[in-house]
């Protein structure tokens, strides 16, 4: 996929200020085989299934994709597999707490065919905001695809301040922000400060997708979208066209599953959920471990309930 206008939402459902990133982008779990190696055939099947379900793009090798335990070569191989499997946009995770490493992963991911990059804010070493800004600027200067900055304080130990996001939004290669702080006031401020830029704000927390879209966000990089792409896309599409009643209905239909998918560290529950639906094994890389019996039981119950309900069509045309 070479084009970087990243949306396949039908025209009637598009956000009026749509620029690049709008809609549903599932964050792909990386499947492993019995030897602990990446299962590339399964990975390609997952990406193809999601594309057929009408998603607007896919996001390999992020936190959900266990990027922290992949080698750099495995990381790039995953990107290549997903790019070859789909025609929809591929947003590759390529961040690091080392600017040198982030530059290398980003350049290699673009060479592998990624249409855009998702860059986590530097973690553990907790740089000052001017250091974070320099980190992102150096990566964005080095590539010719759109970059999404990613704020997830629960994983990084630091918070990407709205003022810094607003400054980064002025960079021509920084086109979006993944919000996973859980702080609605902060997310609203980011949207307020960047609304005159060619810049899109995406939810990075499934429970916050509808509130974010209602504030002017444009979509979601989603975990639950792997399991229920039609329903997740229906939340976003209805929200973008201002039909909050329909969006709320789909949001509440998904809410119990969303809670279950985050009762243990992501991607433990979603990997288990996929195994329940016979999409791979529940295998993860150490130090992540298999979901508890209680989580497995809850997921099985919720997925069975959803399987008994008709899902919205891929076109999301209902009023």
Fold and architecture overview:
The protein has 319 residues and is of the alpha/beta class. It has a single domain, classed as Aldolase class I (TIM Barrel, Alpha-Beta Barrel), CATH 3.20.20.70. The chain is 44% helix and 10% strand. Strands 1-7-6-5-4-3-2 form a seven-stranded parallel beta sheet. Strand 6, helix 8 and strand 7 form a beta-alpha-beta unit. Helix 1 packs across helix 2. It is globular. The N terminus and C terminus are likely disordered.
- Strand percentage lies at 5-15%
Helix/sheet category: alpha/beta
Number of domains: 1
Number of helices: 13
Report how far apart the termini are. Answer: 32 Å
Shape: globular
Give the strand order of the largest sheet, numbering strands 1, 2, ... along the chain.
1-7-6-5-4-3-2
- Report the order of strands and helices: EHHEHEHEHHEHEHEHHHHH
Parts with pLDDT < 50 across at least 5 consecutive residues:
1-19, 315-319
Rg calc: 18 Å
Q: Which fold name is given in CATH as the topology?
A: TIM Barrel
Note the main sheet. 7 strands, parallel
CATH superfamily membership: Aldolase class I
Provide the fold topology.
Blueprint: E1 23-26, H1 40-52, H2 72-85, E2 91-93, H3 99-111, E3 116-120, H4 129-142, E4 147-151, H5 153-156, H6 162-168, E5 174-179, H7 184-194, E6 200-203, H8 209-214, E7 219-222, H9 224-227, H10 229-240, H11 244-261, H12 268-276, H13 293-307
Parallel strand pairs: 1-7, 2-3, 3-4, 4-5, 5-6, 6-7
Helix pairs in contact: 1-2, 3-4, 4-6, 6-7, 10-11, 11-13, 12-13
